[in-house]
Queue: 3 jobs
Job 1
Amino acid sequence: MNILFVTGGTGGHINAALSLAKEIRFADDEVNIKFSLNANSVFEKKLQNNKFDYKTYSLKMPSRLLTFAWFLFILDNIKALVKSFFLIAEFKPDVLVGFGSYAGIPAVLAGILSFKKIAIILHEQNLVPGKANKLLSVAANKVAVSFRKSETFFRGKAVYTGNFVDKSFFTVTKNEGIKELKLKQNKFTLLVMGGSQGAVFINDLFLKAINLFEAEVKKNIQIIHLCGAKNYECVKDKYSFMKIIDYNIIGFSDNMPIVLAASDLIVSRAGATSIAEINAVGKPAILVPYPYAGNHQRYNAQVLEDNNAAIVFNEQLVSEQILADTIISLMRNKERLKAMAQASGKLADAESISKMRQLIRECYEKIR
């Protein structure tokens, strides 16, 4: 069986696809896997490190309407579509798995329009589906959804699988994380992160909140700040002027199970993959969803909030004082932290990859 994974240019897509691909390869020697993705040197390096073959094209959606950049964007889409037709003719996939985003449309569309018999499966990570998957689902065989509430969007094509993460998230321990990151065992460990690319808003908000911490808090806390590679130097410089002793600044991590496991509390955006990883390690969280891109993150975060696994703040309303007070309050309330952690862990689905593998196999058998 030949499987083509089509991902956009975000860490959430590539991490989910990579976790699934590694599991499939481990379980079945007779499967050939190839990736098609929007060009991104960081994610291409991840595929190279895991010895997966891939092809890229380059798409960047213009930020403004009715500009010349849109004409170039349309041309780039046509080029990507042609390139995808050649890839499909060469690789001859039996199954194509698309992970959403505008950047994945050309390759999935090529699979739909080709004369070959290809099972098209889409994976929707967010609770409220994106425009790309809504559009492509019309011609897809099945749509794997991460939240049961998403099933209503896909008219009988939806299959609940959950949002899959690497199995190591379910087995790694806090002690392993603390040891690997060379942290102290007796201090409260706070992880601050903004997704695979970092988040300037989260970085700035938290750096302001630190200045409101009392001396006692600073003495008893250690911080892991996953700030994004492009923000690393700026964030590092700001920490150097602060009166806080224990901190570990990371631009980009390829070992998120260790980073997440080391923490007692997480401050984060609410991307679908980030939430799945937080649940898999069973950690309490303070979430500040990204308020744009269809407000997908707010709906994702709502699931954790409704299950008492996270505290969720609106970006337009949260302040450094509110964030600082919430962190300190949770630090001092171990019972609430424990209850939130247990609630978070209950939202995880350790069988999600197995469910997706089964769906791929079933769709493949139907087209043979």
Job 2
Amino acid sequence: MRLCTIRTEHAGEQAAVVTSQGIVPVTAINGHLGRAWPTDLYSIIVQGLSTEIVSDAEVTPVKLGADTLRFGPLYRHPRKILGIGLNYRDHAADLDAPYPTEPASFMKCDNTIIGPGDVIELPPQSQRVTAEAEIGVIIGKTCRRISEDEAQAYIAGYCLIIDMTAEDILQKNPRFLTRSKNFDTFFSFGPELITTDEVPDLLGLKVGTWKNNTLHRENVVSNMAFPPFYLVAFHSHVATLFPGDIISTGTPGAVVIEDGDVAQCRISGLGDLWNPVRRRDE
């Protein structure tokens, strides 16, 4: 099953279910069946309600066409966004960086969040910003000190991510990583949360960084040094992971973006995420 967040003029951002017949807002489910389901996707994940809501969506007659809708980020305020650096061996070679012997993780803040089609703003402090396509793991249940074999049971699903880096700031000093990663608009995710049952071959997925409809770099999840289940288990031994937490698992390649470009993430079987790029003067 697939879930999303749509934007409407009157109701703002609200959760919806993606069905084979169209997209069903949770507000339509509540109105048709007299339910009181939460209408934001984050609360649905935290409360573990997705299966019940999807069942109700199938019998709700309101079905909207995706081409008539504008999608938002899946949600705005996760407790944690964990990024993983240099998780594909080829990407480490691109940056002339030493290959990490354990996950090279960092944190991002929720001020960075944007959704599909939103503008990535290039800040005046940086003249070299890169965009990085990644597959995201969304935690579905609280977990602490779990094993890699247990990890899938704690995952709500996957999503597409475009992560940005002010690379020239990072190159000055590796201690500037937090600043280089946390400018406004530096984290796009969506347009759908794809549950684990829809991804039978996670390791076989191809993740591609694209710019202006041209492929920059592509790789297969199986070529990660630290695959998604390992990342969930590893970080659960560092800090408790909560529903809605996001792990952005690393990029096959970062592409420099300029004013007027369109940055894109494409993942086989999961979809396409894109964002236009603009230079911010102040």
Job 3
Amino acid sequence: MDRFKTMTSRDDVIAAGRRALTLEAQALTRMADELGAPFADAVDLVGGLKGRLVCTGMGKSGHVARKIAATLASTGQPAMFVHPGEASHGDLGMIGADDAVLALSKTGETRELADIIAYCGRFDIPLIGVTADADSALGRGCDLLLLLPDSAEAVDAFNAPTTSTTLQIALGDALAVALIERRGFGAQDFKVFHPGGKLGAALRTVAELMHAGEETPLARLDAPMAATLLLMTQKRFGCAGVVNDDGALVGIITDGDLRRHMDGLMTKTAGEVMTAAPLTAPPTMLAGEALNLMNERRITVLFVVDQTRPVGVLHIHDLLRQGVA
């Protein structure tokens, strides 16, 4: 275990971490500055595919390729990962005539990619190469080259994949973002591919989580406060919406309104006690947006209104129970 004792202080450890982060940040900045026409060509190629983008790479580049495929698939761009070693033993058949291949290799000389490069050339399958060496086997064999800056890895003693894989993964993210914006892919589209977890909960709509029908506490403008208080107690939301003769929501009564009208409260009507023009949400609002709105305005209940008519009520606890945060 002596190899773990070469750093003499915590300051040395922190300095090493900062050095690695700074080196990788500089490489990312350089790649951003050098990004140009080949990147736009790649976005056009992938965005116009009838089939899928097949991502591949060996070792650490393979892990990055798998992540890029997952990111693209989750944002509406059909993509999959094929292991280059398995490709040589039958999985080349997974690459179809309408597909394109994205191959990652820092050196461009990864021998396991040779069969994929040859296969793409033989069957006219577009090959996008991501490498730091334009004169490598991958650089020469690809149809479209996304050249990585030839930046030093973060480890001084040997070239463990660090900076290079950071560049690869960032380039994959850039490709995904550009494709999202090219297609006009929005939150509602994203929701289709993310039904689970906190992200899926945040992308559900208010209409999916609200209480509707008889659960909605609504009182008419001329309703006596005695009846309105009974309604508020029965529905258990701590409030009541107030509607006019046309059924439009015109106000809300909360505990704060009750305290402000305590003097002679039971002689008043709902219209006399309410706060007019309350904050509301449309049924199509995302749950995450509704939670942000509640937090910003420091409220716990939102009436859901379709045009002017209340169709439900949403409590902040409904959002929290569903994992929206």
